[in-house]
């Protein structure tokens, strides 16, 4: 289930900062900023895990690594601070036009207590009694 | 496969392990060894720059996070992954995605280093690649990217090609062959 897409003027302070910085750095033709924090065990409004979809002509001719580095550079301060995780999708306008779909938000497969309990339950159901 | 592949990569947890990965508890339970990196700890080496608030685990400073130490690790094997947790028990969804993708391609023989076990390495690997997040994938000693990039490489066929260059035949090629027969 995708996380909430943040409207241009919406979202918490970090979401707005991310949006502003990416806009300034990359002049995207399309930009989506998604706050995945609640899905990683954080409380609502935690603003720790984000996903960004950036469509920009600046990515033309650049391999994925370089594209992601551009995004990281724009968010350097945030990544050194509260931004704990960042999913990045970086496409050129042509790529976005031929495939205007963003992959779904990554599920939290982490070791949060809630997830661990769920996994333990699943494993018990699959193979009761096994270690 | 039970779990869905995902994109994204995660940084070190802020104080208190706020990423919710339950890292400390699971790390104790798993006791995952980090092999060569563990052997390098405690060696006399110039202290590596540490982020404020990140206490190095090693008594001597940043030995296992030094450029030389990391260089040795990434060259250890054609496929080297720095992740949270282990391939048997990843402790983060993004690290798990890397493990799952490699598994899909039949790559089970690779070096995996659990950065949760070694704060020096955790910072050192980020400095080495100038990349802020974990997991990090190295092919033939070269940084390839994190989970997002590996996923895209998997989806567009690039990963099969890169593995081929390393002399690794992706299992997906055989899977395709079987499909064609049917």
Would you tell me the overall average pLDDT of chain B?
77
Mean pLDDT of chain A: 82
Strand-residue proportion of chain A:
15-25%
Percent in strands of chain B: 5-15%
Number of helical elements of chain A:
5
Overview of this protein structure:
The complex is a heterodimer of chains A (131) and B (182). Chain A is an alpha+beta fold and 131 residues long. Chain A contains 5 helices and 3 strands, in the order αββααβαα. Chain A has helices at 13-26, 64-74, 76-79, 93-98, 113-126, and strands at residues 30-35, 49-55, 85-91. In chain A, strands 1-2-3 form a 3-stranded mixed β-sheet. Chain B is an alpha+beta fold. Chain B has helices at 23-30, 36-40, 67-74, 93-104, 119-129, 147-156, 158-165, 171-181, and strands at residues 79-83, 111-114, 136-139, 142-145. A 4-stranded mixed β-sheet of chain B has the order 2-1-3-4, sandwiched between helices. In chain B, helix 4 runs parallel beside helix 6. Chain B starts with 22 loop residues before the first helix and ends with a helix. Mean pLDDT of chain B is 77; it is low at 13-61. The interface between A and B is large, with 37 and 41 residues. Chain B: Keywords: 2Fe-2S, Iron, Iron-sulfur, Metal-binding, Redox-active center. Chain B: Residues 45-68 are annotated as: Disordered. Chain B: Residues 54-65 have a biased composition (Gly residues).
